[in-house]
Amino acid sequence: MKIGLFTEFSYPGKSEHQTYTEVLEQIAVADELGFDFFSTTESYGKDLFSCSPFPLGLYVAAAQRARRIRFLTGIISAPLHHPAILASEIAAADLLTEGRIMVGIGRGHPWVLNRVGVNPAESTARFEESIRMLVEIFKSNYIEGLDGQFWQIKDFKLSPPVTQKPHPPIYTAAATTPDSASFAGKIGYGLVQPGYLGIPFDLVRGLTETYRKNLPAGRSSDVVLGIHLHVARDREEAIENGALALATQADVFLRSSQSRPNLSGVKEAYATKSASRMAFEKLSTPDKARAAVAEEGPAIMAVWGTPEDCIEKIKFYVESLHPEQLMLNIASGSLAQERVLKSMRLFAEEVMPVVRRF
After folding, report:
1. pLDDT by residue (tens digit) across 290-343?
2. Least enclosed by CB within 10 Å: which of 24, 174, 181, 197?
3. What angle do CA 150, 89, 117 make, to 5 degrees?
4. What share of the chain is helix, strand, coil (3-state, %, to 5)?
5. Do 228 and 303 form a contact (C-beta atoms < 8 A)?
6. Residue ranges covered by each domain of the chain
7. pLDDT tens for residues 237-250?
8. Other C-beta atoms within 10 Å of 242: how many?
9. Which CATH superfamily is domain 2-355 in?
10. Beta-strand (E) ranges in 18-65?
11. Residue 139 and residue 155: Cα distance in Å, rounded?
């Protein structure tokens, strides 16, 4: 069982400089503690939601201090990038991290696409075209000519080439839609499931099954299951910290996706999704988050408690969903750095050795 960490790079009450300093420290400590990978998002223009527009750049910087841990982009918004340019940036980062990049790529949030003039209705088609072009560029190194609906490539050499052959591991995301899970399976790459957003457990299980049913013969499943986590010696402390962290993330999601009057169609698109309503509204204050997790239990994928509590809860998810990797959301930006690092260390010392044997 591979175990990694995730942060959304939210920064309520902090400067961007402090946030980057803290995340770089989290990566270095994660490397020392034996976590397998670290992941963060790609995000633009989202008011405290995240200040991470260039995760590949972050990873190159982090790799100078963290010499072993791998780095997952979670998730690059494919519609925003020309595939040839994106392939070049990934290849350079793969070289500079000595072959430790894991490529997570998806359709992107509709409110981000709206902000930069990309039609969200085209996001699926752009994403599917992008990932096919990326793989072709990685494998060929040279493209004489490649024409798509959205992008064209002529006389293009990938320099530097990717360090990992034939290319870095590729993952796509499926948060709520079966079509995304089905596509991830059909193309035979890994699947990232951000269950830490409060997405209902039954929906996550259904998406996992859809992904695995669509895998080509001979392709192995590679599910990266995201859960929200905070561990402490004292159960009440863990619940208090976990509820604050999850509520902060849910609140900024809610404000970014549904409270912008200039983003035509985005509010309506999200309002139709029950999973998003639960994530954004039912968890948007610490009291709401605490009550929802207490009432709905495993249905909300938040693991808060003592080391023993966390082992028991994680075992349920592992035995139910059989993920190949776990991705633990450990920092929302609202928690003090010492609390985040304390939770990481306690998990690594007392929970991780047990979970690896599941």
Report:
1. 999 999 989 999 999 999 999 999 999 999 999 999 999 998 768 999 999 999
2. 24
3. 40
4. 50, 15, 30
5. yes
6. 2-355
7. 999 999 999 998 88
8. 28
9. Luciferase-like domain (3.20.20.30)
10. 37-40
11. 15
